[in-house]
Design goal:
Layout: E1 2-9, H1 13-22, E2 28-31, H2 44-48, E3 50-55, H3 62-69, E4 76-79, H4 92-96, E5 105-109, H5 114-117, E6 123-128, H6 132-138, E7 146-151, H7 154-176, H8 181-201, H9 206-210, H10 212-221, H11 228-237, H12 242-249, H13 255-268, H14 274-283, H15 288-297
Parallel strand pairs: 1-2, 1-3, 3-4, 4-5, 6-7
Antiparallel strand pairs: 5-6
The protein binds 1,4-dihydronicotinamide adenine dinucleotide and 1,3-dihydroxyacetonephosphate (13P).
1,3-dihydroxyacetonephosphate is lined by residues 82, 111-113, 165, 168, 217, 220-221, 227-229.
Catalytic activity: sn-glycerol 3-phosphate + NAD(+) = dihydroxyacetone phosphate + NADH + H(+); sn-glycerol 3-phosphate + NADP(+) = dihydroxyacetone phosphate + NADPH + H(+)
Pathway: Membrane lipid metabolism; glycerophospholipid metabolism
Protein name: Glycerol-3-phosphate dehydrogenase [NAD(P)+]
Length: 298
């Protein structure tokens, strides 16, 4: 293992932004499925030899990626993805668990559009891990323009980061249908209540939903066309086909698959999740205006 070295895995929007940010203080390697013309780009094997890894690949791809590529060798890992696996309903910490000991893994959450981070604009992030020691190890890597906080509430951060993507789709629909700011604020506020209710079933802490991981990321994502998920909602409100919206987007919108996971989990555990349910139905083809009527009745 290359002691004290750090690599980002995944050179999409978020991986590239994290690579830029972390490179302010030290040399940081980066790797991706397809070679990129980026400073310190290395092959996957070289990256996996680093002591510190930041993994920024889409949530739905992680299990297969771990099975195919990953061998635990004492690495310390930060997971940058936000989503719940649709096929199993498992949270990312559950997917990583057979591969990485709990004390070696942390999860990044909080409001952080890659497009702003890559410009060096200020933001605040939470590193969520059962190990504060792990947070202390990663904290010095972050540049001055990113303020980091520690939380032990991994599941709270995971639920918040994943759920807000589904709510951002709903908010994009609201905007596209010109329902007004009152409706949008109501939707976002009720969405926050809904994600907390959902999270409680999995033992998430209420405080995570009121801070950066919950309200912070939700207010950001559900209020801006910079969000891919919000743009999916806008497209749906214009009666565009989901496959066309996603093709035009050309980047991951985690809320699409996460809405399937939430639907299955809320059925299994009998959780009241009206907004996520309607998003799921609209993604399956329901007219957004009918969804609105049903939401107002529910
Ligand atoms: N873009 C943003 O502002 C933020 C994104 N995130 C999260 O980070 C994750 C990644 O998002 P982005 O980088 O923005 O998406 P993106 O669509 O820009 O890039 C995804 C990257 O993952 C790689 N990838 C896809 N499938 C793969 C596989 N099977 N094996 C290896 N690599 C694979 C792609 O080649 C691409 O480089 C998502 O879970 C997203 O929710 C979190 C915070 C901010
Ligand atoms: O998670 C994000 C910002 O914190 C990015 O959101 P989108 O994936 O919707 O662009």
């Amino acid at each position: 293992m290359r002691k004290n070295s750090i690599a980002v895995i995944g050179a999409g929007k978020w991986g590239s932004a994290l690579h830029f940010a972390l490179s302010q203080k030290q040399e940081v390697f980066i790797t991706s499925r397809t070679p990129r013309d980026v400073k310190n780009f290395v092959d996957l094997q070289t990256a996996l030899e680093c002591e510190y890894l930041v993994i920024a690949i889409p949530a739905q791809e992680i299990r297969a990626w771990l099975k195919e590529n990953f061998v635990f060798n004492g690495q310390k890992i930060l997971v940058a993805s936000k989503g719940i696996e649709a096929s199993s309903g498992e949270f990312l910490n559950e997917i990583y668990a057979p591969f990485v000991p709990e004390k070696n893994i942390g999860f990044i959450s909080g409001p952080s559009f890659a497009a702003e981070v890559i410009k060096g604009l200020p933001c605040a992030l939470v590193i969520n891990s059962s190990s504060k020691k792990l947070y202390k190890k990663f904290e010095p890597f972050f540049p001055n323009f990113i303020k980091t906080y520690y939380s032990s509430d991994v599941i709270g951060a995971e639920v918040a980061g994943a759920y807000k993507n589904v709510l951002a789709i709903a908010s994009g629909i609201c905007e596209g249908l010109n329902l007004g700011k009152n409706a949008q604020a109501s939707l976002i506020a009720r969405g926050l209540v809904e994600m907390q209710r959902f999270g409680k079933v999995f033992k998430a802490k209420k405080s995570s939903f009121l801070g950066l991981s919950g309200a912070g990321d939700l207010f950001l994502t559900a209020n801006s066309t910079m969000s891919r998920n919000f743009r999916v909602g806008l497209g749906l409100s214009q009666d565009k086909k989901l496959e066309d919206i996603l093709e035009e987007l050309g980047e991951v919108a985690e809320g699409v698959q996460t809405s399937v996971a939430i639907q299955n989990l809320s059925r299994k555990y009998e959780i009241y999740t009206p907004i996520a349910n309607e998003v799921n139905l609209v993604l399956l083809g329901k007219n957004p205006k009918d969804s609105l009527k049903d939401l107002l009745k529910s």
